[in-house]
Amino acid sequence: MKGQNKLFIAIIVALIIGVGIGGFVHLQYPESAEPFSKNIKLLGTVFIRLVQMIIAPLVFTTLVVGIAKMSDIKMIGRVGTKAMLWFISASLISLFIGLILVNWLEPGHVTKLPIQDAASAEELLKSSKGFSMEDFVKHVIPKSIFEAFATNEVLQIVVFSIMFGVALANMGEEYSQPVIKLFDIVAHGILKMVGYIMWFAPFGVLGAIAAVVATNGFEIFKVYAIYLRDFFFALAILWLVLLLVGYLILGNRLFELLKRIKAPLLIAFSTTSSEAVFPKLVEELERFGCNNRVVSFILPLGYSFNLDGSMMYMTFASIFIAQIYGIEMTIGQQITMLLVLMLTSKGIAGVPRASLVIIVATCSMFGIPPEGIALILPIDHFCDMGRSMTNVLGNALATSAVSKWEGQLENHGGDM
């Protein structure tokens, strides 16, 4: 059995065991659920931290090497333009799907949710206040590249890497080649580490799932069944659209791509972190046949600008909160909200629970009680599973599509 399939099966087994252990603790030892959850969650924390440890150097080295190797500035501009057109189009489609389906399904009108204590949303309310153009600029442009590395600010690392890569591309080979070769070796070394770290993924998945089920039990699925059902139905529609576009561009190779990224999709779903699969996704896309220069250029950008699952969730959740409070919004207001979400979501990429922070800020702007975020906090973990998985799919498709448009997609990648 190939290593990729072994990892996939190990993750599935860990997922089932995690649900079983969590359910057992919740039902048999409810008084111990909280300390148990706190301790077993450490397995997930260790896995996420191991991945976060290598993200900054991997983004920096692969992006610098990718751009420097292009050497043709026109090619950089062309690839970047195609990528941004995809990102903007995909974001708008995702927002529209969320908007249309939440209005059609009306989960807020048929679900009687218990009113949560607004204190649970206090931290999010604080972090969403004061968002301005100044904050946006500070978040995008690094004050210090070392600070950006230390805090894993992917967007800031991307900005610095692009500028450094372009500078190297414009220098003579005598100066640039030794640096490019060094960074290329470092990037491959980090990718080798990815293989070791991914074998800890099943333990991370087990810990994350067991903690949630032990604390909340199976009741949470019943209480929020309608909201979850409608949200995942909306996600299914978004997947259908993304896969249809992917098939039109990639043809039958789309199915090979899905086989390649099945483990990253499952890890993102289980750990609620699309960031956790970034290194593995780089590796699998290159094996699929995408040009490594295109992958190293587009994928880091996608993690900042192309979060399709999160985009759809923002309109869905914002209108849901309005429905819960009986606030009727006109079509004009909803379209304005969509455009606001489109802009603000690009400004705080990399912020923990960014989707929720943006929803709170947007609700405040449109007269919807921002405390309503407390209503969806208990099930946000489960929604985040779907969001993260969709973000990974969207970025894999974007990278593959641009590679194809550039004529840089090999017919046969590495071994499955």
TrEMBL record:
It is found in: Cell membrane. Pfam families: SDF. It is a multi-pass membrane protein. Keywords: Cell membrane, Membrane, Symport, Transmembrane, Transmembrane helix, Transport. Gene3D superfamilies: Sodium:dicarboxylate symporter. The keyword Transport applies. The chain crosses the membrane at residues 7-27, 47-71, 83-105, 154-172, 193-214, 226-250, 319-344, 356-379. This is Na+/H+-dicarboxylate symporter. It comes from Chryseobacterium limigenitum.
